[in-house]
């Protein structure tokens, strides 16, 4: 007899807990809608913030890599300007329209 009562109370407790969670969730949703117009807007903003945060972290990682590479080059004795200058010269010599410039472009 006691076990049956215990089971019933456990079920009732579980049900009460679920109802409380549901009520809390509803209140939270309502509060969010009041603050931001609608819950969807809030979700969209959260997604955009998440994306920006991810991009920022990726950029930080790239900065670190570039810093490490620059330090490695300095240790080897290569000058940063020399390497960068050569690359720029190569780019200038080969233009998008070929060696004669824009006028010689067949199109």
Write up what this structure looks like.
- Residues 1-46, 69-93 have a biased composition (Basic and acidic residues).
- This protein is mainly alpha-helical and 107 residues long.
- It has a domain at 30-74.
- It is built from three helices and no strands.
- Helix 1 packs across helix 2 (39-76).
- It is elongated and about 95 Å long.
Biggest beta-sheet profile: none
Instruction: Tell me the distance between the termini.
Output: 95 Å
Number of DSSP strand runs: 0
Number of helices: 3
In terms of DSSP E residues, the strand content is under 5%
| Gyration radius from CA atoms, angstroms | 32 Å
Which structural class should the secondary elements be placed in?
mainly alpha
Give the overall silhouette. elongated
Low-confidence stretches: none
Region (Disordered): 1-107
Biased composition (Basic and acidic residues): 1-46, 69-93
Biased composition (Basic residues): 47-56
Short précis:
81% of the residues lie in helices and 0% in strands. The protein is mostly helical and 107 residues long.
Provide the fold topology.
Layout: H1 2-36, H2 39-76, H3 80-93
Helix pairs in contact: 1-2
What are the key terms here?
107 residues; mainly alpha; 3 helices; 0% strand
